[in-house]
Design goal:
One of its GO terms (biological process) is intracellular protein transport. It is a peripheral membrane protein. InterPro entries: Clathrin_L-chain. This protein is 63% helix and 0% strand. It is mostly helical. Among the domains are: 69 residues; 45 residues, no CATH class. α5 runs antiparallel to α7. The longest helix is centred in the middle third of the chain and has 73 residues.
């Protein structure tokens, strides 16, 4: 085969060839080893032979048999107009849907802005009411504290802040606060000093 001959062209022959086969083999080797004789003109432009004079077109239009205009190649006129009508109707439907969506978005934005404004007003009103009630409660607590301290033993005020009647041993098993409780009760009844 030819591939074997090309691959083994320098290998020694393992069997004897007839004279005709050897000359054929030599001719093949000469063809492979010899560079191709190509003209420089053919190397530059492979389509030079098919130039303007190479073919006879005689001014005919190659697209003369093709349909032209807006018609599709395989659709008759009735199908094209039905398709165009459907496309126009579909485009109108899409535009209507887009307009409805835009209107819905605008309505939702306006409603959200109104709701947010109402919520902010309600929050401001609630905060103001809470602030006023806290100020009133603080003023009344300070007035009550001042009234309770006047002429009273300060240890009575301290004793009023703790539970003097409970059993300390039952409430807290880790700390014994009975001594402190007894001391506060003693100071309440017989104060060391007054304000």
């Amino acid at each position: 085969s030819f591939c074997i001959l090309v691959a083994n062209r320098h290998a020694p022959s393992l069997h004897s060839r007839p004279l005709e086969a050897q000359s054929h083999h030599q001719a093949t080797m000469d063809f492979i080893d010899a560079p191709a004789a190509v003209s420089p003109m053919a190397m530059e432009d492979p389509f030079a032979s098919a130039g303007p004079g190479g073919g006879d077109f005689s001014g005919s239009d190659p697209f003369a048999g093709m349909p032209s205009g807006g018609e599709s190649a395989g659709a008759p006129g009735g199908e094209a107009t039905a398709l165009r009508a459907w496309e126009e109707q579909h485009n109108r439907e899409l535009e209507d849907m887009s307009a409805k969506e835009t209107d819905g978005k605008n309505k939702n934005k306006n409603k959200a802005a109104e709701d947010l404004k109402a919520w902010n007003e309600e929050r401001a009103t609630t905060n103001q009411k809470r602030l006023n009630s806290n100020r009133t409660a603080q003023k009344s607590a300070e007035a009550a504290k001042d009234d309770s301290v006047k002429g009273l033993n300060p240890w009575e005020l301290v004793a009023s802040l703790i539970d003097t009647k409970g059993d300390a041993a039952k409430e807290n098993t880790f700390r014994d606060t009975s001594r402190m409780r007894a001391l506060l009760i003693q100071l309440k009844t017989s104060p060391i000093g007054t304000l």
